[in-house]
Amino acid sequence: MADKQDAPAAALVVGPDGVVSGWSESGRLLLGWTAADTVGRPVTDLLAAPPPPGFPESHVGGPDHTGLVSLRHRDGSTVDVLVSAHPLSDADGRALGHAVTVQRWERRPVIADLAFEQSPFALGVYDPELRFLWINASSGRVIAHSEEQVLGKKYRELFPEFDRELFPERDDKPYTDQLAEVARTGKPARLITVFRPLGSNYANAWATSIWPVRDAEGRVRAVANWGFDMSAEYWARQRLLMLNEASRGIGRTLDVIGTAQELARTSVPRFVDLVTVDLFDEVLRGDEPPPSPASASGEAVALSRAAQHSATRDTGRVPGLPMPVSHAPGSVAVRCMATGRSTVQLAAEPGEGGEWAFGPGLAADPAHWPPGNPLIDASLAADGLTGRITVPLRARGALLGVVAFSRSDRPEAFTADDLILAEELTAKAAVAIDNARRYSRERMTALTLQRSLLLQRLPSQEAVDVASRYLPGGTGTEVGGDWFDVIPLSGARVALVVGDVVGHGLHASASMGRLRTAVRTLADVDLPPDELLTHLDDLVIHLASDLQPAGRFQPTGEFGATCLYTVYDPVSRRFTLASAGHPLPLIISPDGTRTPAPAQPGPPLGIGGLPFEATEVQLPEGSLLALYTDGLMESRERDVDQGIADLLRILNPATPLEDLCDTVMDALLPERRTDDAALLLARTHALDLQHVADCDIEPDPAQVPLARKFTLDQLEAWGLEEASFVTELVVSELVTNAIRYGEPPIRLRLIRDSSLICEVSDASNTSPHLRRARAFDEGGRGLLLVAQLTQGWGTRHTTDGKTIWCAQTLPESQPRRNPSR
What we know:
Layout: E1 10-14, E2 20-23, H1 25-31, H2 35-38, H3 57-60, E3 65-72, E4 78-89, E5 95-104, H4 108-117, E6 122-126, E7 132-135, H5 137-143, H6 147-150, H7 155-158, H8 173-185, E8 189-195, E9 204-214, E10 220-229, H9 231-249, H10 256-267, E11 274-279, H11 281-285, E12 301-310, E13 323-327, H12 332-339, E14 343-346, E15 375-376, E16 387-395, E17 398-407, H13 416-453, E18 464-471, E19 480-488, E20 494-504, H14 506-524, H15 529-546, E21 561-569, E22 574-580, E23 586-588, E24 594-596, E25 615-618, E26 624-628, H16 640-650, H17 657-668, E27 677-684, E28 692-697, H18 703-718, H19 724-741, E29 746-752, E30 755-762, H20 782-789, E31 792-798, E32 801-809
Parallel strand pairs: 14-15
Antiparallel strand pairs: 1-2, 1-5, 3-4, 4-5, 6-7, 6-10, 8-9, 9-10, 11-12, 11-17, 12-13, 14-16, 16-17, 18-27, 19-20, 20-21, 21-22, 22-25, 23-24, 23-26, 26-27, 28-29, 29-30, 30-32, 31-32
């Protein structure tokens, strides 16, 4: 006998009176009873338990019916079966009973049919013409139709295609197109569609698989599909994508306002319709933010709106310009800033316009609202809003401001997952804004230090006309160590200096200040350019060793610099220069000849052990000199050689220097600079030879009266009789010292410039110095007397000896240039 587990479905006929009138062989295989055992007996005799209420009418009477019952096997065991009854009638319509099929519950067709019918996934089968053949209960709920309503009908007969412009939330065309494609090609497909069902405030995301159903010969006889609502996974993925974009888009610039605007642009329109970012004024200035406001203080909190971005509305704000805003005491924004907790406001009560806590299709265990959220605020509707999330902007324990995320043009209310997203976006922006604030403060500190160390006002001198420009790097870079200087020297000369310290930031600015001070100190000693750079090189080496880390201090990086030191003498019109790794100056003659200085740059400062070479050039009066740092030349658009060629082309010796500086900076500097740029322009003058007088002095004390007479005669010729007494006394002392302590040849020179300069030169290298003479000493008072009677004195060494000079202010300090040149 066949195993009852493998028995096919049994068939029997039950008359109107409930008596079995027909029995099949499959019934014997299933239950062990033969036709002789069952025909003529009530069908209730087959039951293994008392009949359910209404049996047999409830199971084998009335219309078609399917039910689960327990039958008695001939061997005494119980068999659970699924009973399906179908009414029978004769030609006259009289009831003849029921045809009953009995299937064992455990067999695959039974359990499979029920599994598919009760599946939570939407299942459906279409014929090749896309007519419905079968749908399960879940699919019926999705399309709001029963199986009886859809069988034999095409999809578009039931659901006409919507106008996608009028009904974007009902765009199911991708689904129907894919059904037709699978029926045509026989290739399975998958797709994800996002739409908002009618009557719902939330968009759903559906994942659908479509495949062909083939017969034994491989022909496509139907198209089947299954789908499920993956809204939770889809929107979680969208939130992750938005956070990923925020990570790339927020904090790209070290600018507070720019970062606030990046937060607003990232959130609109994918997340919300309107974002406002309000910051404390101290944060915008780069200062430390103030303490958190007290919610019960009763005072309004003043902020500045750093960013405001709307999907549809014109905010009326000028981008990049903060706008003052005030938050009333007790307002949601003030409470959020005081407590440090976010607040969600919704315009509708639960149940008004759909679910508000969680949209359909969200995960089984979604995020839960934190305590106190959400708040139902009907006043939002007056502002045209459906909801608002207010998040305090905090970073590293400091309150920077507040951010508001608002929805107005979309019906779905915020969920707890949306609150998490808003807080994540705000947290990323807060760190970036605080970094920008700290950078702004450091950069402003470095700029202030740098500007305090740079030349603030061009000194008074008559050797050259000077104009300068200095521009720090753009907002994306730190300040550098570029500097320039104009230093008046003895003998009406002037030193023009340009330098650049390696690196950026406070370290570079401080190092620049030390080097500039050192150059000024060495210039006061009147060292030649090559010797001055040698001493400066030693200083840089010592500075580098001082910067080595010790103890708990961290290393500040390598230290190096370049420097160009030049000296121009308006009397001889000689231009002497030496370079320590710095670009050479450009020389433009009055006739338009343009050329770099004919010199060879030496090594950068800090190398040590290598010599520097000084070069001397004779310049025509009115020559234009251009000294600059490499930040003026280097850019991504051109190389240094091209930059020098462009600068030579732009420099016009006839153009006023201030206008020429502006022209050069506008033409050569890109919009986004990566380094500081310094430019120093000088137009040379020549001193009128009639304002220079000199004579040779024999090494004999008898020559002192002759030197005094030469001086008085020259002062009378210049109309400077008022300076005769002091000048005669000074010249007498200087010439006497040169004869007594110096070596021949001795030379006296008088220069009438903006001041009256007396110079006495000799071949000795011995430097004079002040000393305090005792009461009975016969000497030692000469230089002290000179220092007391003049405005300045000093010594400069040359290859031929030394020169002692002093300068005194003229009664009328006027330029003494050569008017004929």
